[in-house]
Amino acid sequence: MLERLDNLSFKIFLIIFILGISNVSYSAENKAEFIENNWSFKGVFGTFDRASLQRGYQVYQEVCSGCHSVQHLSYRNLSEKGGPEFSPEEAKAIAAQFEVTDGPNEDGEMFTRPGRLSDKFVSPFPNAKAAAAANGGAYPPDMSVLVKARKGGADYIYSLLMGYEEAPAGYELDDGVYYNKYMSGNKIKMAEPISDGIVEYIDGTETTKAQISKDVTTFLVWAGDPHLEERHRMGFKVFFFLFILLTLVYLSKQKVWSRFGSKNEEEEVFDKAERAVSKYEGEDPDTFR
Amino acid sequence: MSEEKYVPKTKLAEWFDSRLPLLSLSHHLKSYPTPKNLNYWWTFGGILTFCLITQIVTGIILAMHYVAHTDYAFASIEHIMRDVNYGWLMRYVHSNGASMFFLAVYIHIFRGLYFGSYKAPREMIWIIGLVIYLLMMATAFMGYVLPWGQMSFWGATVITNLFSAIPFIGESVTNWLWGGFSVDNPTLNRFYSLHYLFPFLIFGLVILHVWSLHIPGNNNPIGIDVKKGSNETMPFHPYMVMKDLLALLTFLLLFFGFVFFLPDFLGHPDNYIPADPLITPAHIVPEWYLLPFYAILRAIPSKLGGVIFMFASIFVLVGLPWLDSSKVRSATFRPLYRKFFWVLVVTVILLGYLGAKPPEGIYLLLARVATAYYFIHFLILLPLLGRYEKTDPLPMSISDPVLDKPGVMDKFKEMAGKYEGENVGTFR
Amino acid sequence: MTKEIKGKRRDFLYTATYTIGAVGLGAAIWPLVDQMNPDSSVKALSTTEVDISSVERGKTITVLWRGKPIFIRRRTKQEIDEAAAVDLKDLKDPEKDSDRTKNPEWLVMIGVCTHLGCVPLDNKGEYNAWFCPCHGSHYDTSGRIRKGPAPTNLEIPKYEFVDSNTIKIG
After folding, report:
1. What letter would DSSP give residue B163?
2. pLDDT one-digit tens code per residue, B74-84
3. Cβ–Cβ of B272/A141 closer than 8 Å?
4. A38 exposed, middle or buried (CB, 10 Å; 0-12, 13-18, 19+)?
5. Is the ipTM of this complex over 0.85?
6. Residue B348: which residues within 8 A CB-CB, separation 6 or more?
7. This prediction's pTM
8. Under a CB-based contact definition with an 8 Å cutoff, are residues B160 and B289 in contact?
9. Separation in Å, CA of C160 to nearest CA in chain A
10. Do B90 and C40 touch (CB under 8 A)?
11. At CB < 8 A and 24+ separation, what contacts does B15-18 make?
12. Which domains can be identified in chain A, with CATH numbers?
């Protein structure tokens, strides 16, 4: 019995360990622990907070978009299900605020026109080199999948936005480099982007640094994973279905196998063995066990 | 229940089957006799077939939308994830499917190791299986390059550079592999082409794998030959089909748990950063299923040596049927081998863990010890065990433990406990 | 008796398992099929705006919409009259010219032959309008099929005049 338990737990341990390895191996070589938030999109049933996404878009637009692109996002996404869900008219109006380069026209020249829903988000710089040149040599990364591209995901982004501090005494910083508790190496070339009241929300939500950071983080999570809600919903359905099918298949399997003799095979083996043993020693099988 | 020959029921069936014996084949697959004591560790063959088909189907679909060009590869993946109908589902099933495929194949391999499934007359099954495993690793590696993220690029760079360790012609070989002087567009294109090709080679080899299995028939947890004509076997359908299905559905719970709720857990965040040939990520880590080999590679303090040992760690398995000279197949009756088997399992897992750690200090030391043990296990321990290990007496058949001889009473008690331990718990 | 009941219950169990399994398989196949349908970025490109201020009378411009050529022709008075004068009885696919245009001066249609998808040529054929070189279909000045294998008239896309110089297709 002990060996059996030992063996089983060993096997389970094996599987968990293998799966656990990736996590262990990829976890950061620890700096500060990220600030954990109770995000609405976390967990099996997680969904986005629409109002927060809409505010987050505003923060992106007013604060981040000067340097950071989100080139994989289109204006139409703003009105799609599972996102900020602006009305189609609102999304159209947002798109029309931007000058999109199009062409060439009949004369072979590029021209600009107001943005349409089908357009991708307009990038602040024509290419990565231009972006780096305008930002002291540091390329402000595209934000489309930024949350997925960082260990810690949403918590990391939020922590980074909240992690600007005075450098400790004696800590040397070059010009244009800032101290951030959560940045790898603690040096960051982006000046603190978010501060109290840097945007003004029309829905009257308070504009503290924490609230603004939360909203823009939520927006970035959605930007990187626009099908999150659909994925969670479908996952729930799939599991519901799997449990039903699993039950049915389990019962069917038991039925099918019961055809192969009324008794479970192991019982049969033991019965046989017990009969043989009692014949051999003249003992009662029950005392043997 | 022995296998009956297929007898056509209609004239049409007879006409067809005498020209192309597909009906005979399907009859054979249904009635193929399997030992009745197979436990759930034997269901991973079916699970692996499912994994392969899933990877091929989702892969063909992804190929309809993917663009194999350094300028567009990353964007085309994002296009799949965002715009293509159910594209995110296809891609997450494919990327997590690779991990699930390897999880299943490792269980399958270790099952073979434990129960001695590689021993005569099943050497061909084992060797074909190893070829499949090698192709799987190549396929997975090339697939990981396709999204053209940072890990794709640098993983490709590091792995292809392994070949530069070959004396004299190393550089020519790497340039040939790359189609240039570094990993670039030509490399991406050929990896894409081969990534598409290899699964079909694997598929062909799987057919050979199963074919070579159906000649001697399945091994079983007791490891002794079953009498095919006896009541010790049951037809594959419906008994094993139902059991495999039950195991597959349980496996799917894990699979879909990752796909729907932790889709990026097994991947590396750096692969969501587009490839940049100017910046190497701080830690280059292969996917988890390749980590043990990565650890062996780095444990050897010479470039060529590391590469040789890494490949040797796989090729040593080819010789396994001859290195393990014990006549007894199942570890159930090999008390010493059983202990060493678990030491090997722990060693491989340890190597996997170390493969993800920087190769320095205690990690490097441990990796060297583990690498050494890995080779000692196969090259020294197994041949010696075959000679000196005192194995437990084997039962007469898979359903009748040896009993009717004087003096075996104690043995039976021990075996009964063991039999229960190995089987009953997992069987139900 | 009990055996019978048992047998029925067993049958029910298997039927239920098969049915649920088949439903699951069907549901799993749908994404595999649907992924080939136009994706959301393609669907979003459904409108395009065309500046027609520089088109002269008797000239056709061709623009691309949803990957297909769109003919925008500024018709001459003669062409309009010809198109309007045709007796509907003579037509294979009877349609009034006035039903095919929003403004008789402008004919907007999808430039794809309704036979097998080739692009018809301008100012050609028996009606000096459109002629498909692939299999010899002749269209009149209203883009209606008059002769040849094509079954229907050239299709009219959804469009509107945004202002007097701009047409929005889609």
Report:
1. G
2. 999 999 999 99
3. no
4. exposed
5. yes
6. B292, B374
7. 0.86
8. no
9. 17
10. no
11. none
12. 26-73+120-226 (1.10.760.10), 232-288 (no CATH)
